[in-house]
Write a structure and sequence with these properties.
The protein is an alpha/beta fold. It is built from eleven helices and five strands; from the N terminus they run αααααββααβββαααα. Strand 1 (93-96) and strand 2 (99-104) form a beta hairpin. The longest helix has 19 residues, at 39-57. The radius of gyration is 25 Å and the shape is elongated. It binds zinc ion (ZN).
Length: 271
């Protein structure tokens, strides 16, 4: 869309241009800081966005009238400045110490920054063997419609996908932080393979341990991987966890990559 041209077309607004207005508005980023000198225009755009919502909810001509009263004050020059200020590309990728978080969802930039910060924090809290599967890690936020489960490890792309509306505010079972570590468990298996002596039945913990992945990885392994990171929160699985941890420490000492070559910096560490 040519935002400037369409914006100029919208100066003379009427109800027939409603769809066009909605499309045009959806390309504008009104979440972040207000660009210099754009406070008045931003307020006008937010007002329009509220009027669009009102129009959807109520059968009234007032929102249409309000929109057209706002756009009629625009000039081609002000539209040009406005579109340049608000159609800037959103920040969609954040990298920190070898971790990349990408936003491929409708999540706003402000929410994405917060989400990415929590992802990085969670990954940096991992130690011992958990940490060994986090090099060059890519986490991608996806819209609900693009991903069937809350999260998954996309083994062919070596990416962890997380549903953008999953909560990352705490590490409770099934929340964003937990599923993130669970998916890192799948990545561990993909890189290093399962440890000798591991079996689904011997290391089953949560109910989810008894389900199957669609890429052939072990859910029991990924669940044990996750609960062993928050050991004290899962006393009901302490027996399994106490057997899992030394087995994993031993495994990550001895193992080399099974299914793909290790990233260069891992190889250089002689792991
Ligand atoms: Zn899984």
């Amino acid at each position: 869309m040519n935002y400037k041209e369409v914006g100029i077309e919208l100066i003379d607004f009427n109800i027939d241009k409603m769809t066009l207005l909605k499309e045009w508005m959806s390309g504008l980023n009104l979440d972040g800081r207000t660009p210099k000198g754009q406070k008045y225009n931003k307020d006008g755009l937010i007002f329009i966005s509220n009027q669009i919502k009102m129009h959807k909810l109520f059968d009234s001509d007032l929102p249409i009238h309000n929109i057209s009263a706002t756009t009629s004050r625009w000039t081609p020059e002000s539209v040009e400045l406005m579109t340049a200020a608000f159609t800037k590309e959103r920040l969609t990728s954040i990298c920190s110490k070898g971790i990349t978080v990408r936003n491929e969802s409708k999540m706003t930039e402000a929410k994405f920054k917060n989400y990415a910060r929590e992802v990085v924090k969670t990954i940096n809290s991992l130690g011992l063997f958990h940490k060994k599967a986090t090099n060059d890690l890519v986490v991608v936020l996806k819209n609900k419609g693009d991903i069937k489960s809350i999260a998954l490890y996309k083994s062919n792309l070596d990416e962890i996908w997380i549903q953008s509306d999953s909560k990352i505010d705490n590490d409770l079972y099934g929340h964003g932080k937990y599923v993130l570590v669970h998916e890192i468990g799948h990545r561990f298996e993909a890189i290093y393979g399962l440890p000798e002596g591991f079996s689904d039945s011997k290391f089953a913990t949560t109910k989810y341990s008894y389900t199957m992945t669609d890429f052939g990885g072990s859910e029991a392994f990924a669940e044990a991987f996750a609960v062993s990171h928050w050991k004290d929160k899962y006393p009901e699985f302490s027996k399994v966890i106490d057997a899992y941890i030394p087995m994993m420490i031993e495994h990550s000492k001895n193992t080399i990559s099974k299914k793909r070559s290790l990233p260069a910096h891992l190889t250089s560490l002689g792991i």
